[in-house]
Each structure stands twice: as structure tokens, then as C-alpha cells.
Design a protein that fits this description.
By secondary structure, the protein is of the alpha+beta class. It is 44% helix and 31% strand. Strands 1-2-3-4-5 form a 5-stranded antiparallel beta sheet. The relative contact order is 0.25.
Length: 118
């Protein structure tokens, strides 16, 4: 299922996040990521339990994906602990890419996978 979310809501969630991976991204890269977003963003929504096998498989079977991304422990912890729907969104800018796991209301970052691809 897809949910349309205002860019301002996603921006606030990213900027206010305490997620370890998100806090490692330089401010200018976060600015570039946010600037690249449309005013309305389609966010994929689904049960966290359905995402766990997909990302576990990617982690175990794709060496470049596993080693190229930071934040796996937090990402898996969030997927394992969350009982509600979660949103999944990829943003990039300034040489960085984040796969962001959002809570059901899309106003908080639960976890993120971070990749520097300069």
C-alpha cells in the first residue's frame, strides 16, 4: 500500500531523528536529500514483519548491500520491535543515500540504512 505524505512531514521526521545512521549524515547532505523530494511523497507502507525476511535475505545474500550500508543493527531491531505498519522511503543527495524506516504516521524515523556513494 502507498500513502501520500507531505514533504514537510518527512523533513521534520528526518531532521528530528535520533537514529544513529541519520545523525551521521552531514547537514548539507540532508539538505540536498530534502531538496530533491517532491512536495508530496509516495511512501510504501506495510507490516514490519513482512519486511524483516526481505531485508534479512538481502543482508545475508548480497555482500555489497550488506557491507555498503551502515545501520543494520538498528534497522533489524526496529523491524523486530514494531507491531504497527511502517513506511519505507529512499532518499539521496550530496553523495549519500538513506533507506528510511518510518512509523505508521510517517512523523518519526524508526531506523535507517545509510550509504555513502560519492
Amino acid at each position: 500500500m502507498m500513502r501520500e505524505v507531505a514533504r514537510a512531514k518527512i523533513e521534520a521526521a528526518i531532521r528530528e531523528s535520533n537514529c544513529e545512521a541519520v545523525t551521521k549524515v552531514p547537514r548539507e547532505a540532508v539538505d540536498a536529500m530534502i531538496d530533491s523530494l517532491d512536495h508530496i511523497i509516495s511512501v510504501g507502507m506495510g507490516p514490519a514483519t513482512k519486511l524483516m525476511p526481505t531485508y534479512r535475505h538481502r543482508h545475508e545474500s548480497i555482500k555489497e548491500f550488506r557491507e555498503g550500508n551502515f545501520g543494520w543493527r538498528g534497522f533489524f531491531n526496529a523491524l523486530g520491535e514494531t507491531k504497527e505498519l511502517v513506511g519505507l522511503l529512499s532518499v539521496q543527495g550530496g553523495g549519500w543515500r538513506m533507506i528510511i524506516l518510518l512509523n505508521e504516521s510517517s512523523d518519526s524515523v524508526l531506523a535507517s540504512l545509510l550509504n555513502f556513494n560519492a
